[in-house]
Amino acid sequence: MRFPEGFTWGVSTSSYQIEGAVKEGGRGTSIWDTFTQQDGRATGDEACDHYHRYAEDVALMADLGVDAYRFSVAWPRIQPEGTGPANPEGIAFYDRLVDALLARDIDPVLTLFHWDLPQALEDQGGWLNRDTAYRFAEYADLVGAALGDRVKLWITLNEPFIHMTLGYATGEHAPGHALLFGALPAAHHQLLGHGLAVQALRARTTSPISIANNYSPAWPQGGTDADLAAAATYHALHNRMFTDPLLGRGYPEIGLDEEVVKDGDLDIIASPIDFLGVNYYNPTGVQAPLPGAPLPFDLVALDGYPITDFGWPVVPDGLRDLLVGFLTEYGDALPPIYITESGCAYEGVDDPQRVAYLDSHVNAVKAAMAAGVDVRGYFVWSLLDNFEWAEGYTKRFGLVHVDFDTQVRTPKTSFSWYRDLIQASR
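Structure for Beta-glucosidase, as requested:
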């Protein structure tokens, strides 16, 4: 099976992970600036210095031959305090980037929020504060007004489940709260912000708009009814909570306080989207918890699979399983899908493991399409080795190796493989 004409091949990055220049161009402080200043953590102060080297990175993408580049805008560059008019210097940077992409026939795919919330908004409660959803809509309107005529695809939020879980439930990511199920309001307010942003963008652009969710099939590890129930609960929390309400089904039973969801919220969240962004890395092994455990499920390793340098199992059939499962679960309500992130962490410029990973996952997409799933594009995470959040610079996902001392970029074996795949598919 060949990929259809018009299938989009792309690469993805995010602002805090690559831009650097955290104190330039009028940029305000983000929660990641604050979080990484604690306990001697690695920071994104320089990262890949993309803010100054974006032209070099666009040239790399042109050499790669991608159709599209998915990047994120740093909210603190546009509104240093999370409110107020747009910062002209911040807008100007993304103007330059978008125009450079278009000059190379690369479609700009813009994500509004990839976790770098302005610290000023976090000081008022961050995503636990309902007001942040309305501030996000105002920010979306500003970016839409500046770039709505040129961006080809819009993504409101990146992985609200991961941001809620690691940022608000367990504290591994910024802003560093450990609230367990007390983090659920952060999920609702992100989704409310998504719906409000969709509405704001509709007035500024005719390009397709959606969201990019992290999805992980919940695979029960054990055959007891309790194991199956635990997997169903985890599936509801990780996957259905961030899809059902988008498609007009409301929330599954996940323990969300009814007082958090106001009248009309679900209608806003269900504002029509044009596609669904799917970020996939691996399935999650789930079993019943021990008596007295704080959560209604226990996450366990999936045995029998190779693992990446991140310790994640390599399970390409999990992607096929996920996509076909969506078609079964949502039927005609399921919009077209873009794989907005797919990648793996491995060391080395010669990276045959990454080639094998990407090849197997592209084939998993083919298998899902053969089963009737409407997939429109595939974006590799990531173009560059970058700042990998809590892992600092110890995990490398890039098609391009970055020497963080010199900022020299070196395309890897996987870069050449992906270029050949793109050329062969046309």
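Residues 8-215+242-278+301-424 form a domain with the TIM Barrel fold (CATH 3.20.20.80).
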